[in-house]
Design a protein that fits this description.
Radius of gyration of chain A: 18 Å
Shape of chain A: globular
Number of helices of chain A: 10
Number of helices of chain B: 11
Strand order of the largest sheet of chain B: 1-2
Largest sheet of chain A: 6 strands, mixed
Distance between the termini of chain B: 48 Å
CATH architecture of the largest domain in chain B: Orthogonal Bundle
Strand order of the largest sheet of chain A: 6-7-8-3-9-10
Number of domains of chain B: 2
CATH superfamily of chain A: P-loop containing nucleotide triphosphate hydrolases
Radius of gyration of chain B: 23 Å
Structural class of chain B: mainly alpha
Number of domains of chain A: 1
Strand content of chain B: under 5%
Strand content of chain A: 25-35%
Oligomer: heterodimer
Largest interface: A-B, 28 and 21 residues
Distance between the termini of chain A: 29 Å
Order of helices and strands of chain A: EEEHEEHEHHHHEHEHEEHH
Largest sheet of chain B: 2 strands, antiparallel
């Protein structure tokens, strides 16, 4: 497997919530145009790590974050760098589909509006984003319908469209399929694999099969530490660490 | 045997309680409507009182109550909603926030007559506004403030964190996420709380007693710097203080019915907002 250049990385990452340390000296790298899966038992800090990259902890007063987070050469926590700029370059899709309580069109338009995309370019971008997320054919005739009336799987693809409309470089996904039925999950997985052509994707998942189906790289975390990271195939079939082996075989979780 | 009887007793007790509540409501409404309806007429709601209140209508009291409610809204709604946004969205959970929140909850339990005295001291005397529509409206505004804050905060708290994060994740600032996503989503809940609070304020007597209400004014209603008539106080005077109590009793019932109708209309607005929202969801 060829080694792609590193797009996003975190080194010596430590995160505390109050007095509890939830991430301990983490070093991770996410290669460009690849899907990297973060796996590990509940509460091991996968989501916390993911959300550190687009600075979603900024508004939690009890969160304390240490370490260096780099998007290519850009330090994401640099003084003077606006958090909205970080989030434009690093998009996010959440565990539970969270469309705005607005129309389908307005759901994507909103991000463009607040990022000052000129008005006359927006409808084309919206159409492309919906096509890119494989939901265009299902919604093209009812763009003014409230997004909340879509099915769960459609809502989640709309949320992906909302993220890609801003042309981010990285898309963070926090268990995007955990609330979906198998068929919707399959559609999202296909979508993720297609999206990696243009984006770098980091996905948190509890589903071992999913990680093997879509991820090029896998990072196994346990109790706030990275235990092992590498090619997905190696992690699942030739893990160096016994803990990793036990986890991917489903002995604990 | 006991297992068969117990559910019947439980069910019976609950039904009886519900029945009693409904019974009294029906009795009150029936009493009001049967005795008040005969005095309702276009003339009653559109003309001034005549012949020492024994004849004529209650137009100035209706205008007074409506204007008073509007001033109450102007005072309590902007400050109340802003305060709730600060408490729920911005304030960190520390002793100061907790103290503010506890104070607001305590304020909502203060008897309304105390607000009346406070209004008298602050607006009427302290700020030299005299007994006037403005003094009374400000007093009712202060009375309504804690309710507006509490109901708005409830409505904001019901918006899940994921909705806020959705806006933040596409690059919205915290303020933008509140303005564009959180507030529109919470609006039906906020409006319902506001309308119910105002309908309660519209029926208050004690806070306006010392601050501006009058039994009778002979100039047209609607001057903010003058005393005014209001439905609840008018009702109180007609039913207890008038020198020809028996003669004005039908008018008192008519006034009560109009007051109930005004409050009912406000409540209906709240239900309508709720209903429309639940359909759009």
């Amino acid at each position: 497997m060829t080694n792609k250049p590193i797009k996003l990385s975190g080194s010596s990452v430590n995160v505390w919530f109050g007095s509890k340390q939830v991430l301990k000296n983490i070093n991770v790298e996410f290669p460009r145009n690849q899907v990297t899966a973060l796996i590990g038992p509940s509460g091991c800090g996968k989501s916390t790590l993911l959300r550190s990259f687009n600075r979603m902890h900024d508004l939690s007063p009890d969160a304390r974050i240490e370490g260096e987070f780099l998007l290519e050469q850009q330090n994401l926590y640099e003084k003077g760098l606006s958090v909205t700029e970080v989030r434009r370059r690093i998009g996010m899709v959440f565990q539970k589909a969270n469309p705005f309580p607005k129309s389908i069109y307005e759901n994507i338009n909103y991000g463009l509006k607040i990022n000052d995309v000129p008005k006359n370019e927006r409808s084309e971008i919206i159409e492309n984003a919906l096509k890119e997320s494989y939901i265009w054919d299902e919604v093209k005739d009812e763009l003014q319908k409230p997004a909340t009336r879509l099915s769960g799987g459609q809502q989640q693809r709309l949320c992906i469209a909302r993220a890609v409309a801003l042309r981010p470089e990285v898309i963070l996904m926090d268990e995007p399929c955990s609330a979906l039925d198998p068929l919707s999950t399959l559609k999202i997985e296909e979508l993720i694999v297609k999206l990696k052509k243009d984006y770098t994707i980091v996905i948190v998942t509890h589903n071992m099969q999913q990680a093997q189906r879509i991820a090029d790289k896998t990072v196994f975390m346990y109790l706030g530490e990275v235990i092992e990271a590498g090619d997905t195939h190696t992690i699942f079939h030739n893990p160096k660490n016994e803990l990793t082996g036990n986890y991917v075989k489903g002995h604990f979780g | 045997m006991m297992r068969k009887i117990t559910p019947v007793i439980e069910w019976g007790t609950l039904l009886l309680s519900t029945g009693m509540v409904c019974f009294f409501m029906v009795v009150i409404l029936w009493d009001l409507i049967s005795k008040g309806a005969p005095s309702l007429s276009w003339e009653f709601v559109s003309t001034l009182p005549r012949a020492g209140m024994t004849k004529g209508g209650i137009l100035p009291a209706i205008i007074g109550t409506v204007l008073l409610t509007m001033i109450t809204a102007l005072v309590s709604v902007p400050f109340g909603i802003s305060c709730a946004i600060y408490l729920n969205e911005y304030a960190t959970d520390n002793w100061l926030t907790r103290t503010i929140r506890a104070s607001i909850r305590n304020l909502s339990g203060v008897p309304s007559i105390i607000y009346g005295l406070f209004g008298l001291a602050l607006f009427v005397q302290g700020l030299q506004m005299g007994t006037s529509m403005l003094s009374a409206g400000f007093t009712l505004g202060l009375l309504s403030l804690p309710y507006v804050i509490i109901t708005t905060e409830e409505a904001l708290r019901r918006i899940p964190a994921s909705t806020r994060e959705a806006a933040l994740a596409v690059g919205a600032t915290q303020f933008e996420s509140i303005r564009d996503v959180v507030m529109p989503t919470a609006l039906p809940g906020i409006l319902t709380g506001v309308v119910l609070t105002l309908s309660r304020a519209a029926g208050e007597t004690a806070p306006i007693l010392f601050t501006g209400v009058a039994f009778y004014i002979n100039n047209p209603a609607g001057f903010l710097n003058q005393e005014f008539m209001a439905l609840p106080y008018h009702l109180y005077m007609l039913s207890t203080q008038h020198q020809a109590i028996e003669q004005v009793r039908p008018l008192a019932y008519g006034t009560a019915l109009v007051l109930i109708i005004v409050v009912f209309l406000l409540n209906l607005t709240a239900f309508y907002i709720r209903y429309k929202h639940s359909k759009n969801d």
